[in-house]
Write a structure and sequence with these properties.
- This protein is mainly α and 123 residues long.
- Helices cover 85% and strands 0% of the residues.
- It has 6 helices and no strands.
- It is elongated.
Length: 123
């Protein structure tokens, strides 16, 4: 038995792994954003942020990769949450834009696993 079977067979553990990743996905980008604001002025200048995110080909690659990937996953999140009739999706939607996609994607997966557990109990 390998360690991935533990996650497959225990949705509770998997859901809390997603929750842990969503916490990291909120804290780590926010720390970088606070550092950005500290270094480049006491406010969050979105134009400067975007300019710096495209300052060289490596930064452009990561920024574009995130933009396209996050956009596709966000569309899936909206569609999947409607299929499963999930609650509290406003946290995911707002969190995507105000916190970080690194927060909202794993938080959605946490909510999704919890919903699947709930649906399985009702069947």
């Amino acid at each position: 038995m390998n360690s991935f079977n533990i996650l497959k067979d225990n949705k509770q553990i998997l859901s809390f792994l997603y929750l842990f990743l969503s916490i990291l996905g909120a804290v780590l980008p926010m720390m970088a954003n606070f550092e950005f604001a500290k270094e480049y002025g006491n406010s969050f200048d979105i134009n400067n942020f975007i300019a710096l995110a495209n300052v060289n080909p490596a930064a452009q690659s990561i920024s574009r990769d995130l933009l396209i990937g996050a956009s596709a996953i966000f569309v899936w999140i909206v569609n999947e949450s409607r299929k499963l009739d999930m609650k509290n999706m406003w946290i995911v939607y707002i969190g995507t834009f105000l916190i970080a996609f690194a927060f909202s994607a794993p938080f959605f997966l946490f909510l999704r696993e919890r919903r699947i557990i709930e649906l399985e109990k009702n069947n």
